[in-house]
Amino acid sequence: MSAIADLHTEALASWNDNADYWDDGIGHEGNKYWKRLQEPCLSRFLSKHLAKHDCRALDLATGNGLCARWLADRGAFVTAADGSDRMLEKARERCSNNPGITFRTIDVTKAEHFEALVADIGGELTSLPFEIEGFDVVLINMALMDIATLEPLAAALPRLLKSDGVFVATLLHPVFFTSDHSRLIDVRTDPETGEREVIRSKAIRKYMEVPPTRGIALPGQPVKQVYFHRPIHELLGVFLKKGMVLDGLEEPTFTSEEEENDRLEATANFAQLPALMAFRMRRGF
């Protein structure tokens, strides 16, 4: 087994181990990253598509179903998928009152899972009493940095999307968050006013080639997860090479009004350095 395959196995196992803790931390309504950064961005990217009659959406790496519920609440018929069986269990529990959501196991690193999905695009895809031609929306929220290889997903997208459908992804920012960086905090007192001044910055030591690393998403989680860094040209290039076209790009960030005074190092305190990156793509043909 290759090193990447070993890391993928470890990554998937970590999400099974962390599923209950993650579900408790994110909850039904999401955390501040969802409420302040992700959801507003997704609303801007997807409002037109979700307004379509009988919108069909595929929510990959659904976790506890947060995005699946958000899509369904806006009228979409949703296929919620994850490679972690335990995560899918939590999603089913959280989405039990959403009849417009069905579930499917999809490991996005396995081409055969997408082949089966493409083959099922029809009357049996979401157990709906009518056929569909593809998805209006394919969404993967805050997961690309957790995936060992993106090629199977990129290869499948042109066949999964309708001609006017869109693929939207959010992830930790490849420059300011998932790269090899340090958070620098300079605390000084203004000699004239006596007021404390905090100056924050980040030192980026590596960007082009950063090996997979282990870290945490929520403080206190049972096991560490694996992060896969990709520079932006590589991240987007995987999809561009398969005929996708970049349609939108945002870098959501917190504002200075949202500082956490009790945690000087908190991500929310670095208002000038975006925590996330989000992009939207469509078929180029």
UniProtKB/TrEMBL annotation:
It comes from Thyridium curvatum. PANTHER family: METHYLTRANSFERASE. InterPro entries: Methyltransf_11, SAM-dependent_MTases_sf. Residues 58-168 form the Methyltransferase type domain. This is Methyltransferase type 11 domain-containing protein. GO terms for molecular function: polyprenyldihydroxybenzoate methyltransferase activity. It comes from the Eukaryota.
